[in-house]
């Protein structure tokens, strides 16, 4: 089931909106709807699937960072994951995992940024091994087919 939306609690809506506007620009995201206590963001020509809502910081004496959030955005290439990471650092985020392939599964290429509130934000490009094989299959099968036709044509007296 695809993810419909994610909403993050933030202590400063204006600062977090500026951060995420910069962070998500490489993925084609922009502000879709801005209200007094919430901002909805989404890809151009798409619905808002990422929301920020104002939530004051914990009161004095309460443990900070108890329920930080993890959210993952899809990318269409490794280059886009790298652009996301660089934009996150530029916007004031902290490194939580440089762009690279992860050992979770083959083809899982991701980067992680901690946002201004300490939430873990991931950008993922996933290309499973079977998809890579399918991309190379036409060239491999094409070369094999040409070789087979040349062999068959040579045996049939075509003078190949």
Tell me, what's the shape?
elongated
Tally of DSSP β-strands? 8
Count of alpha and pi helical runs? 3
Give the class from helix and strand content and strand pairing.
Answer: alpha/beta
The N- and C-terminal alpha carbons lie at a distance of 54 Å
Beta-strand percent range: 25-35%
Give the strand line-up of the largest sheet.
1-4-3-2
Mean pLDDT: 82
pLDDT < 50 stretches: none
Q: Compute the CA-based radius of gyration.
A: 23 Å
Order of helices and strands: EHEEEEHEEEH
The biggest beta sheet, please? 4 strands, mixed
What share of residues is helical?
A: 25-40%
Protein described:
The chain has three helices and eight strands. With 160 residues, the chain is an alpha/beta fold. The strands form two sheets. It has a four-stranded mixed sheet with strand order 1-4-3-2, covered by helices on one side. Strands 5-8-7-6 form a four-stranded mixed sheet, with helices on one face. Strand 6 and strand 7 form a beta hairpin. It is elongated. The mean pLDDT is 82.
